[in-house]
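Here is one chain, start to finish.
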Amino acid sequence: MDSFTDYLAEITGGASQAAIARVADLDQSNVSRWRKGAKPSPEAVIRIAHHYGRPVPEALYRAGLVSEETAKRLRVTDAPGLSSYPYPALLRELGRRLAHAEHTPHTIQSPADYGEEPSPDDYDLAAGTADGPIDRPRS
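Its structure:
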């Protein structure tokens, strides 16, 4: 696994320590300590993930706060909708996915093709067979 600072560079497009500290609502010295191997707080990781439009379990795993298995099992039920993400984060994610698609030899058909854990609801939604809100249990 890469370091958390490698992950930050990847998701922020190389933003400065000061910019990352502002997003996490911390002093810049905290971000500097992460470069030296200190672990960030879960709260800071979650704020960063939300700001940059990344899945919280992924960010917690990359910060070394949860195992990969735990990150895969975590399901954030109260995740914010896309409209709550800043436009730059949405555009970065769109760019990342488009770049990935250019290098993918097959048609992308599911979230798993992006390395994301698919939900059974994703397939129902794509097939047009979803009954009402996705998060509601079916009877």
